[in-house]
Amino acid sequence: MDMITRIHGLQENMNSKVRDYINENHMISPGDWVVVGVSGGADSVCLLLLLWQLQKEIPFYVSVVHINHGIRGEDAQLDSDYVRKLCAGFGYDFTLETVDVPELAAKKHVSEEEAGREARYLAFNKKVKQIHEYGKDISQIKIAVAHHQDDQAETVLFRLARGTGLSGLCGIRPINGHIIRPMLALTKQEIYDILKENDLSFRVDATNMEDSYARNRIRNKVLPYLEENICHNAGAHIAETAAMLAEAETYISKEAGKKLLTCVIRDDNGYRYSIQKELFLQEDIILQKYMILKIFHELTEGRKDITQVHVQDVLNLFQKQVGRKIDLPYDLCARVCYGKVIIEKKNTYIRQNCIYENESSSYQNKNKNNSPKILEPEVQYELEGVGILRCSVLKREEFFTEKTELIPEKTYTKWFDYDKILGSLSLRNKEEGDFLVFNEQMSKKTLKDYMKQEKIPRELRDTIYVLAEGNHILWVIGGRISHYYKVTKDTKRILQVQVTGGITNG
Q1: Nearest to residue 332, comparing CAs of 379, 271, 373, 380?
Q2: Average pLDDT over residues 245-252
Q3: Domain 3-241 has CATH 3.40.50.620
């Protein structure tokens, strides 16, 4: 009997357990386009059969992607031929992708198992892109893979043995982005039963019986032992527990997301998250941990190298003094500020937005008749842990009274000769080469020496803000200003810089 004749004789009745699971999780809607990964093994062949049956009830499109991993030699070619014939029988589009997985694993320094998984999803997403370019809305394109209940139990045991958090114990999710897993409701035995009822053959991959991979050892030894010696339905019970944990994890994650809005400030570029200490520490520890994990997730493309150790390291910072800092994976760091712990991409706090932007790209080439261009009549910036910095430009007659031309002495409000500023001003932390002019003879002193002289603790020096034109420091916020920029009898326009909010102004 050829493949087409066999398929025409298949049952058209959809497995009710899978149908209910698909509907409960809103996996497939009318008009969707489902890209199915089919290896030719029992799981993926059963998935293809179930989708074919579901099409009798819901109108949607199916395309099949098969990957030759470059591992099984002649058997791999037989697998490809079988899946091609299967697709012809069902009337489905067939795509073959060939990848040298051993070579990919060596190149990326990962296991062949991990490299194979990466290769499969790259092939699936390539097909998704083609369908999208064909004109299909991306939200209506799904990738269906054949994970089942035994895979779920295997995954939970694997993660539990290696160490994981609540999210890891949730196992494989029914939906992850545009990836759907319609067969998580079925056990492996139920899959065999469905194929037998429909007299549908499948390919057998002998490598699945080898114990070279940790997952294979769980599949071939641990789960069977549990089923035979502990509880007959051990795999199903583990999968059910994972589903309940997933519900709890979803709830906690949503609550943590709400709390983020109340005690975490995110900068406009999304590179820095400032956790407000007082509000944060009022929350339960589980919400604190989830908020930190959410920040990691938003700052990085993935969380593979983020562990509970890193979460705890950040939590420990809330008990540390100002200036303490730790390095984290993905080029992140966390540091203690006044009343806050900040998690950010490294070096993003070194140079803030320009307060003023020169009309020329090089201020060294400008003459004294050309002043820097002010962006707005008045601008303001937030200084993490300090307050709000406001800048404005005043004419001389707007600042001085008829009775006196004395410059007030205030710690957090300073005035500068605006016309002496020839370039762009930046609000940032200290850099190599920074200096101030400290007397009428225009003698220079490095910012490093100034901080030593003022006995500023070493751990705080990188957190102090300065207002600078290049490496020339106009003002160490809260400290002295450069003599060069002081207002004199010849000053026509005055730049006023004031810090308010997080400190007592004076």
Answers
A1: 271
A2: 94
A3: yes
- Encode pLDDT of 212-228 as tens digits: 678 889 988 999 999 99
How does 220-247 read in b/e, with b if 16+ C-beta sit within 10 Å?
eebbeebbeeeeeebbbebbebbeebbe
Q: What is the DSSP letter of 481?
A: B
Give per-residue pLDDT as tens, 9-27: 676 777 899 999 999 999 9
pLDDT in tens, 375-394: 343 556 666 556 677 888 88
First to last CA, the chain: 93
pLDDT score of 377: 39
Is residue 73 pLDDT above 80, yes or no?
Answer: no
- Candidates 301, 487, 269, 462; CA nearest to 393 is 487
Note the pLDDT of residue 401: 65
Concatenate the DSSP letters of all residues of 422-475 into one string.
-S-EEEE---TT-EEE-STT--EEEHHHHHHHTT--HHHHTT--EEEETTEEEE
Lowest-confidence segment of 335-339, 343-347, 472-476 by average pLDDT: 343-347
Token pair, residue 110, equals 């990962």
Q: Which two tokens stand for residue 450?
A: 């100034």
Q: Angle at Cα 166 formed by Cα 165 and Cα 171, nearest 5°?
A: 100
Contact 301, 332 (CB under 8 A): no
What residue segments make up the domains of the chain, in order of their start? 3-241, 267-345, 351-500
Dihedral class, residue 478 (left if φ above 0, else alpha if ψ from -120 to 50, else beta): left
CB atoms within 10 A of CB 29: 12
Determine the Cα–Cα distance for residues 211 and 80; give it in Å rounded to an integer.
25
Read off the tokens for 142.
């799904």
Q: In 3-state terms, what secondary structure has residue 25?
A: coil
> Going along 146-278, which residue ranges are E strands?
175-176, 179-180, 264-266, 272-276
* Confidence bin at 128 (pLDDT 50/70/90): very high
State the pLDDT at residue 69.
Answer: 87
Mean pLDDT throughout 255-262?
93
Under 8 Å between Cβ of 198 and 90: no
Nearest to 381, CA basis, from 324, 428, 441: 428
Q: Using the structure block, give the residue that is written with the tokens 């004749």.
A: 5
Burial of residue 428 (number of CB atoms within 10 Å: 0-12, 13-18, 19+) = middle
Q: 496 - beta bridge partners?
A: 392, 415
CATH code 3.30.465.60 for 267-345: yes
* In contact, 496 and 415? CB cutoff 8 Å: yes
The residues, ordered by sequence, that sit 6+ positions from 256 with a Cβ below 8 Å of its Cβ are 287, 290, 291, 293, 294
Query: What is the number of residues in the chain?
Result: 506
Non-local CB neighbours of 441 within 8 Å, separated by 6+ positions: none
Domains 3-241 and 267-345 fall in the same CATH topology: no
